[in-house]
Write a structure and sequence with these properties.
The protein is of the alpha/beta class. Helix content is 45%, strand content 15%. Strand 6, helix 7 and strand 7 form a beta-alpha-beta unit. The radius of gyration is 19 Å and the shape is elongated. Keywords: Hydrolase.
Length: 229
């Protein structure tokens, strides 16, 4: 594997870092409370009782089989919102999902990795279009750092399957051995590792999540990138 010199003067062999989006670059600390306020005290009970239906809606939208608006309308129906409040409900859900907070160090770290010569990309299972997520990222100053942005709703491909990772790598002109994937979920990290990528865990779902490397702070990626073989 050929390396190159970074701005710090060290040789970097890794060529690309691919990231999950939600719970890696950003999170939604107010989301559950916002839902409770809008839908009322029975919201969590309804979600528990109708959990499979909610998951099915999101799964269909995540591969483009259902529009975001169609998913929102069905969710509002499950929560029992009157039809005359559908427009209000759609606006609420759009705003609640857009209310993201970036983890400490995300912007500075990504810009440093970019300056060091790494290619950066997002590989996300999402019912949101890439343009929507990029508009959120613009608020954090990271919309312009990406060399590739692959969303399941636009490709019909889902993690942890290999195809979505390979599609992103092909777009970057990289082989799996030259790239790392940063995620929080065990199945996605395992999927990336299965295609030959280095798996890096950040903000793990729990302590049982395994990866080649585990980082506690997003900024740890800078030193890790400079030390990976």
């Amino acid at each position: 594997m050929d390396g190159y010199s970074s701005n710090c003067g060290r040789t970097i062999y890794m060529k690309a870092f691919l990231f999950d989006a939600c719970d890696v670059l950003y999170h939604r600390p107010r989301y559950e409370e916002d839902l409770d306020r809008f839908f009322g005290p029975d919201r969590r009970r309804i979600f528990h009782e109708q959990g499979r239906a909610f998951k099915d809606l999101q799964a269909r939208a995540a591969v483009g089989a259902l529009t975001v608006e169609g998913m929102f309308d069905a969710m509002l129906g499950l929560y029992g919102l009157p039809p005359e409040r559908t427009g209000e409900g759609r606006r609420f859900l759009r705003d609640a999902m857009a209310d993201v907070e970036f983890f400490d160090g995300v912007a500075s770290t990504l810009h440093r990795l970019k300056a060091d010569g790494l290619k950066l990309g997002v590989v996300t299972n999402s019912f949101q279009r890439s343009a929507t997520k990029l508009s959120w990222m613009a608020r954090g100053g990271i919309d312009g750092v990406w060399d590739v942005f692959v969303s399941s709703s636009e490709t019909g491909l889902l993690k942890p399957g290999p195809e979505i990772f390979l599609a992103a790598l092909e777009n970057l002109g990289c082989v799996p051995a030259d790239a790392a994937y940063i995620a929080h979920a065990a199945d996605e990290l395992a999927g990336a590792k299965a295609v030959g990528m280095t798996a890096i865990a950040f903000n793990r779902d729990d302590e049982t999540v395994q990866a080649d490397h585990v980082i506690m702070h997003f900024g740890d990626l800078i030193d890790l990138a400079r030390s990976l073989p």
